[in-house]
């Protein structure tokens, strides 16, 4: 078995910004200031996340900022005594823990992690929660993180904008396979409003919770086209998550230049609820 912390990978994105990833491919981002550091999201929570964070932040205090409530972003929150998130994202820890249990079972079954790999939701305690609002600023010393409400994926999702780096850490607010399928998700029209809002923010690149590469404002028109396609009435087809039983919806494959679902240029939107069964048309022969 690999040493503790080895299941968490880290790479520098330059100027005190680091991208962390876990065996699922979930991403978190560490922003290191002169005085403090902030970890935006905590991935699925397997492995020794704190060991990796401490090795990068040094002696600086580290605070955890969460973009939203879902298990693949809050899994490591149990390793922190306190985390910060939007008020509307708090209070869903039991659901997240149940989803993490499903993810853990699948990861062990498929050989992604060793059976004795630690998971924060099992080894830690539920953290205290401080609430953040749109426009709040977090001063790390030499750089700030500005809280930006980015609604759609959930009804209270929060992004974190670093003006000094001109980087937006957006969580799941905008992704090539855009999930608007949860009970807490908003309609496509609300997500399109977020896309318009992002177009007016002062950043050069943004990073998501599930991709290595950075996106830019040049990518936003493709996401807007995907929103337009769904709003035009595409019926879509049923979609079910491979592991978490309750994650399902209607998948709309939007016109784009690739059929590779793993490509950052792919476009799909998954909306809430399953589509009505399509009626087969049988010709009556009398």
How would you sum up the global shape?
A: globular
Helix and strand element order: EEEEHEHEHHEEEEEEHEHEEE
Strand order across the biggest sheet?
A: 1-2-3-4-5-6-7
> What is the SS-derived class?
alpha/beta
Total beta-strand segments: 16
Relative helix content: 10-25%
Uncertain segments: 1-5, 282-286
The whole-number mean of residue pLDDT values reads 93
Polypeptide structure, described:
This protein has 286 residues and is of the alpha/beta class. It contains six helices and 16 strands. It has a seven-stranded mixed β-sheet, covered by helices on one side. Strands 8-9-10-11-13 form a five-stranded mixed β-sheet, with no helix packed on it. A hairpin with an 8-residue loop joins strand 9 (144-149) and strand 10 (158-162). The protein is globular. It starts with 8 loop residues before the first strand and ends in a 15-residue tail after the last strand.
Please name the defining characteristics of this protein.
single chain, 286 residues, alpha/beta, 7-stranded mixed beta sheet, 5-stranded mixed beta sheet, globular, disordered C terminus
Outline of the structure:
The protein is an alpha/beta fold and 286 residues long. It is built from six helices and 16 strands.
Topology:
Layout: E1 9-14, E2 17-21, E3 27-32, E4 36-40, H1 49-57, E5 61-65, H2 71-74, E6 82-86, H3 93-109, H4 120-123, E7 128-132, E8 137-139, E9 144-149, E10 158-162, E11 167-171, E12 177-180, H5 188-199, E13 205-208, H6 220-231, E14 237-240, E15 248-253, E16 268-271
Parallel strand pairs: 4-5, 5-6, 6-7, 11-13, 12-16
Antiparallel strand pairs: 1-2, 2-3, 3-4, 8-9, 9-10, 10-11, 14-15, 15-16
